[in-house]
Write a structure and sequence with these properties.
single chain; 714 residues; alpha/beta; TIM Barrel; Leucine-rich Repeat Variant; 8-stranded parallel barrel; 49% helix
């Protein structure tokens, strides 16, 4: 086995002998890799959660992948973590945000590590950021209610959120840049984090991640926009027909003003700006790539000609689903200027000369193969490697051999692979775990279990997945025992363990014994063990069982941790509506914790939808009373959003649940009627609810004549 000290010296000497700048690709298209970072640290892919993982990744980018620049979205997480309100009532996302903040800047400092690692290797690193994503109000759909985060600029200045023509609904995501003071405030913190973070530039994506928008021209009717359009054209866009193209151009002028101000703040320090635009119609913002693509920023004309002429942006990026025609037009626009052109989403394939390629990569980086082997693509080239590669000092060769074993291209004895679990290289250890899982030799179990205590979080969670391929029901105790350790993380506990349990079940290796063990851990002494066990149960298709329902009902009624009670209720909502499940949901409507009450309402709506008439009516009555509690002078701490959860639960019941909301709409109680109208006609949830502009007008004709929308605490 390679001596750790010798390997470290060899790595230093090898790196010291390299040229400062990476070798360019054989084509004339410089390569940039885009990392979302937050997804890497949440989901189970390429790890970017430590100095070892970031440095190993950047070594590959600089070397075999011939990358010259990184777009790093971890900088956005740092801004959100400091600048935004993180709502603790969304308990899953609150845990994610604690993990992200600890990684990005509070404890590990992955952003600073990435900047240092990039510059030490001659790479540029730009912060990637959502130009039109400043979080959302609490009753906007995405990831459950409340929406997890919102810029303090929006919270403290609600008028700065884009408004619809009726004055009833504010867009999730953007800040309305028509307000000069809003532009100044946003420029101030973006410039500060770009400069203080040591980034070489800032690359803007131009979509927002939420479901608030229901049609493309819904928002953009704030007072400055309305007043300026009236001054220019003599038309009130809220009440009269108007020129949509002129309106979109006006909105785009405010984006140009923002870029002009940001340029003035960054350019003296040599920092650059890139903006991603729609890949088919470059004068519009990007489509968010969900449900076929939705322009969640709305219709805004992006004045590329002015941006290029004035040098406001250093790079125009055509986002995914781009076309050759759009690329040709943008290349022609930028010809002879200082503005470069880049293309997102064409990780492979020919491009015009000097067009920059924005690539996305994943676990292929760990394989040891050059980029041109296209690892994890359908036409990947994983070739057999010398069996003695594990004994040599070439770290890429060790990775390649283990990767070839993991892809079942070749076999070597499991004992030799298990020895690589002690390799000094992070990616070698992870590849060894994949290889052992592929070999299926249970003699490797002791080594895999030992890897659950590795110094690196990403090796530990990879060991959990390998254990799922080799172990039996007893693996549940091993996995949950690892959760109980002080070093266990959000990603290990609530992502890797549920995935491992799901894989155990998929192999038929969980069985009744494994399920029994999992339920026992749902009553463990440590809260994080109970949470992990309940999340793991959520990854399974549970068999109909009165006993399971009773055990989950006990958790829902009596667990000391509100989040565990929430998780138990969400599991009960998926059952066939046993007595225990229904009774637990009804009882939890009166839980001491308001958020648990709301999760109980969701469960009751789902259970009641298919329940016998008596129970269905009981659910309807209980939910209607709960909804009515938000009317009048309600002082509930979830007053800004809890009504939407209850209202959606009533809709889950079907026609008679909707009838309860219609009755509330006609109740004569102004606030209650307003909330019922919003549930019925301003739908929000974990998907889009598209309507036409004509349907929106018709819905507003049904709105209670109660004056302004109620003011909600955000």
């Amino acid at each position: 086995m390679l001596n750790r000290g010798f390997a470290a010296i060899l790595l230093i000497l090898t790196f010291a002998g390299c040229r400062r700048h990476p070798r360019p690709p054989e084509d004339s298209n410089p390569r940039t890799v885009y990392f979302t970072v937050g997804d890497n640290q949440d989901l189970l892919g390429l790890p970017l959660d430590s100095a070892a993982s970031i440095e190993a990744t950047f070594d590959v980018l600089r070397g075999p992948y011939r990358v010259s620049r990184v777009w790093w979205r971890g900088g956005q997480d740092e801004i959100w973590g400091n600048q935004f309100v993180i709502r603790p009532e969304n308990r899953l996302y609150a845990r994610i945000w604690d993990w992200w903040r600890d990684l990005q800047y509070r404890k590990v400092g992955t952003n600073r590590i990435a900047v240092r690692a990039a510059h030490a290797r001659g790479l540029e690193i730009w912060m990637a950021y959502g130009l039109f994503d400043n979080g959302s109000g609490p009753d906007v759909g995405f990831g459950g209610f409340p929406y997890a985060a919102e810029d303090r600029l929006r919270v403290e200045h609600p008028d700065w959120a884009p408004l619809n023509r009726f004055g009833t609904w504010r867009q999730g995501g953007p800040i309305e840049l028509a307000y000069p003071e809003a532009r100044r405030a946003m420029v101030d913190y973006l410039a500060r984090y770009t400069l203080d973070g040591g980034y070489d530039g800032i690359a803007f994506l131009s979509y927002a991640e939420n479901y608030s928008l229901r049609y493309e021209d819904e928002f953009g009717f704030n007072a400055p926009v309305v007043d300026e359009f009236r001054r220019r054209y003599g038309v009130d866009i809220r009440r009269e027909p108007f020129d949509r193209a002129a309106w979109a151009r006006l909105r785009g002028e405010y984006v140009t003003a923002f870029l002009r101000e940001l340029r003035a703040a960054l350019h003296p320090a040599g920092k650059k700006i890139a903006v991603s635009v729609d890949g088919r119609d470059p004068h519009l913002p990007c489509l968010w790539n969900v449900e076929g693509g939705v322009r969640t920023a709305g219709r805004i004309h992006l004045d590329l000609e002015t941006w290029v002429r004035e040098g406001l942006v250093d790079e125009l990026n055509l986002y995914i689903k781009n076309t050759d025609d759009a690329l040709r037009r943008v290349v022609e626009l930028c010809r002879g200027s200082a503005t470069s052109v880049s293309l997102f989403g064409r990780t492979r394939g020919e491009l015009p000369p000097r067009v920059l390629r924005i690539m996305t990569v994943g676990p292929d980086v760990e394989s040891g193969y050059p980029w041109e082997h296209y690892i994890d693509w359908k036409d990947e080239r994983v070739t057999a490697q010398p069996p003695d590669a594990l004994d040599g000092g070439d770290v890429l060769a060790r990775r390649r051999l283990l990767h070839a074993v993991s892809k079942r291209v070749q076999k070597i004895p499991a004992a030799r692979v298990a020895a690589a679990l002690r390799d000094p290289d992070l990616f070698v250890r992870r590849q060894a775990l994949d290889a052992l899982a592929a070999l299926g030799d249970r003699s490797a179990l002791p080594g895999v279990e030992a890897a659950l205590a590795d110094a690196e979080n990403s090796v530990r969670w990879k060991a959990a997945l390998a254990l799922a391929e080799l172990g039996g029901p007893e693996a549940i105790d091993t996995l949950l025992g690892a959760v109980a350790r002080p070093e266990s993380t959000f990603q290990f506990n609530l992502r890797a363990v549920p995935e491992a349990v799901k894989r155990l079940a998929g192999r038929g290796a969980l069985g009744p014994d494994g399920l029994r063990r999992l339920l026992a851990h749902a009553a463990a002494a440590e809260p994080k063990v109970r949470e992990a066990a309940l999340h793991a149960l959520g990854a399974l298709k549970l068999p109909p069982s009165a006993d399971i329902d009773r055990q989950l009902a006990r958790v829902a009624r009596s667990d000391a941790e509100p989040y565990c009670r929430e998780l138990a209720l969400s599991l009960l909502a998926r059952t066939n509506g046993s007595d225990a499940a229904f009774a637990a949901a009804v009882a939890a409507l009166e839980d001491d914790d308001p958020v648990v009450q709301l999760r109980a309402a969701t469960a009751l709506g789902r259970l009641g939808a298919a329940a016998p008439p008596q129970r269905h009516d009981q659910a309807r009555g209980a939910l209607a009373r709960k909804f009515a509690a938000f009317g009048g002078a309600s002082a509930r701490p979830d007053g800004a959003w809890g009504w939407r959860v209850i209202g959606n639960a009533l809709l889950d019941l079907g026609d008679d649940g909707r009838a309860e909301l219609e009755r509330a709409l006609r109740s004569g109680t102004p606030r209650l009627a307003e909330l019922a109208w919003r549930v019925l006609y301003l739908r929000q949830g974990d998907k889009f609810y598209p309507v036409t502009e004509e349907q929106d007008r018709a819905a507003h004709a049904l709105r209670p004549a109660s004056g302004k929308p109620p003011a909600f605490t955000r």
